[in-house]
Design brief:
The chain is built from 19 helices and 22 strands. It is an alpha+beta fold.
Length: 596
């Protein structure tokens, strides 16, 4: 458990935001005796002040309670203050309260825009509109007292001096969601206002096993290095950072002991992508294949430094487009595998199909030796380290969502059973499934975990979630999978481009400039001005409906065969036009790339 640092470094837990016409003032109201933070609404400049400015009939402020300052974001001309306006208590991490961001709000400091050219005002409006999308970012968590960017093992291994540092200085920058937005506050040495925020998931439950009460927590930490949406962030960048990289930590606390088990997931570490073109499953495109060995090596070097031994479990199909990715990944891994890195391909769909997920036992038999050898982290009732986790299982499919979550939940179940046997609660043959309360809670825990990670990356809950939640495939689950698959298609093509822009803006991945495509889009007229996905889909479905209707009447009137061919041709023509002119419909990111 993390020791509390010096009180002078404590974060403000409750504040009052004063909105004056020319400035914002953030006043600590949690009993702290610290100074207030004044932020100019003209240019975003800030300083500490000892008293709230005077109010008058001309300077009547609005006042609201806030629970944290996320940071400051600078755009072309103005700056924007992001604060937490509502929070929800969701449990505790190693004894410290954890909160979820229920609502955050952006406050502009852009009065200087009055003196800028019209074109710059227009561009600033475009970018500030993206912040409205960013306000709805899901899955943000924070703590005022403990560093939730670090696993229990890494927290325990922090030196005494490090434990006295402000939380933001202890944090793993990979998992610090507001890392970029905190930079201005860091420059002004505003430690009590610097609240580290993690994007991911946090769930826990308690269950009785006889007379013992076990507390189980599951936390996800999303990496910010290549964050984004499903179709717009694939594969790795040239530094080896991959899309949808998430660290999942399962922690149990029982009779004063604490045990932790960490797994990771992440996209196939090659330079590859899928260009959204209105097809249901765009082709996989491998970029700069000659770079594959170097990128894979950098990725696994980073994993070894942070986690020790690595077992990479690749769940993609052996054939088709996924098969080509699998082949290139496997070839690149030949240069990396050794005593501390293993690679295993397991064709999930071929072996398990869509319903026989119990066949994951075949996978487990192949990795059991690594699993047992690399252990888990364990503290005894005195807080002494008894076991350490020596390695990590890295799981991937294509999205690193559905197949990955089913697999990780299986491994987490196995590990929980190991730990409960070690702590003397289970006998040698006892399993979670024999304790209905524990079994049901465990399934729900991992199902919610998978849904949270999936919502952030794809916009929908996880597929195959019914197996994780109920232990079997259900008709309702299959129907839900179909609906969610359609929703992913819609979001990938018509929503996620703007969402990707907002993410890149918040993370500081791109400069604030408008591309030629963006300018052209804003000036479209005629058919392109009214074109939309619902309209195109409606026309296609209408054509297919009448084609089917005419085809069913062919026996009574041969002319219906001609009509069915005409309607089918019209539908195909519309679909072809839509695909050929995907730019007319697709919602594409618009910001120029500029890596920091």
């Amino acid at each position: 458990m993390m020791e509390k640092g010096d009180s002078s470094q404590k974060l403000y837990k409750r504040m009052r935001l004063w909105e004056f016409p020319d400035q914002y003032v953030v006043e600590p109201t949690d009993g702290s005796s610290g100074s207030c933070l004044e932020i100019s609404r003209v240019d975003g400049s800030m300083k500490l002040i000892d008293e709230i400015p005077n109010c008058s009939s001309l300077r009547v402020p609005k006042i609201r309670t806030i629970f944290g300052v996320i940071g400051i974001l600078k755009l072309l001309a103005g700056s924007y203050l992001l604060v937490i306006t509502e929070r929800e208590s969701v449990g505790s991490y190693l004894g410290h309260p954890i909160f979820k961001v229920s609502s955050m709000k952006v406050f502009p400091c852009d009065h200087s825009l009055k003196n800028t050219p019209a074109e710059q005002k227009k561009m600033e409006a475009e970018f500030s509109a993206l912040l409205n999308v960013a306000e709805r970012t899901p899955g943000l968590y924070f703590s005022y007292d403990v560093n939730i960017t670090l696993s229990a093992q890494r927290l325990h291994d922090l030196g005494d001096e490090s434990k006295l540092l402000p939380l933001w200085r202890q944090a793993d920058p990979r998992f610090l969601w507001n890392n970029y937005m905190m930079e201005v506050l860091i420059d002004h040495k505003l430690d009590p206002f610097l609240l580290p925020v993690v994007q991911g998931s946090f769930h826990n439950f308690q269950a009785a096993i006889g007379k013992d009460i076990v507390d189980v927590t599951l936390i996800a930490r999303r990496c910010n290095r290549r964050t984004g949406t499903r179709m717009w962030r694939r594969g790795a960048d040239s530094d080896g950072f991959v899309a949808n990289f998430v660290e999942s930590e399962q922690i149990i606390q029982l009779n004063g002991c604490t045990a932790s088990f960490v797994q990771v997931r992440g996209s196939i570490p090659l330079l590859w992508d899928q260009v959204v073109d209105l097809t249901y499953k765009p082709k996989f495109e491998i970029v700069k294949l000659e770079e594959a060995p170097r990128v894979v090596e950098r990725h696994f070097l980073d994993l070894r430094k942070k986690y020790g031994n690595v077992l990479s479990v690749d769940l993609v199909n052996k054939h088709g487009g996924e098969g080509r990715l699998n082949e290139k990944f496997a070839n690149a891994m030949q240069q990396v595998v050794g005593d501390d890195v293993r690679y295993l391909h397991f064709d999930f769909h071929h072996i398990c199909g869509h319903v026989h997920f119990e066949r994951l036992s075949i996978l487990y038999e192949q990795i059991e030796d690594f699993f047992i050898k690399n252990r888990y982290f364990l503290l005894n009732e005195k807080g002494e380290k008894v076991e350490i986790q020596l390695g990590v299982v890295r799981t991937n499919c294509i999205d690193c969502l559905d197949r990955t979550n089913v697999t990780q939940s299986m491994l987490a179940r196995k590990m929980l059973e190991f730990q409960l046997r070690r702590l003397g609660v289970f006998d040698a043959e006892e399993a979670i499934s024999t304790h209905l309360n524990l079994d049901e809670s465990f399934k729900i825990l991992w199902a919610n975990h998978g849904d949270d990670i999936s919502l952030q990356y794809s916009g929908t809950p996880a597929l195959k979630g019914d197996f994780v939640r109920y232990g079997k495939r259900t008709v309702q689950g299959i129907v839900n999978d179909g609906w969610n698959a359609l929703m992913r298609y819609y979001l990938n093509n018509f929503v996620d481009g703007t969402k990707q822009d907002a993410i890149d803006l918040m993370q500081g991945h791109y400069i604030m400039s408008v591309s030629r495509d963006m300018t052209a889009t804003s000036q479209k007229g005629g058919i392109e001005a009214i074109a939309s996905f619902p309209l195109a889909l409606g026309l296609i479905l209408t054509g297919l409906f009448f084609a089917t209707l005419s085809l069913g009447r062919v026996r009574s009137d041969v002319w219906n065969l001609l009509f069915s061919l005409v309607w089918a041709s019209i539908s195909l023509a519309i679909a072809a036009v839509v695909k050929a002119n995907g730019r007319m419909f697709c919602n594409r990111p618009r910001l120029h790339q500029s890596r920091r």
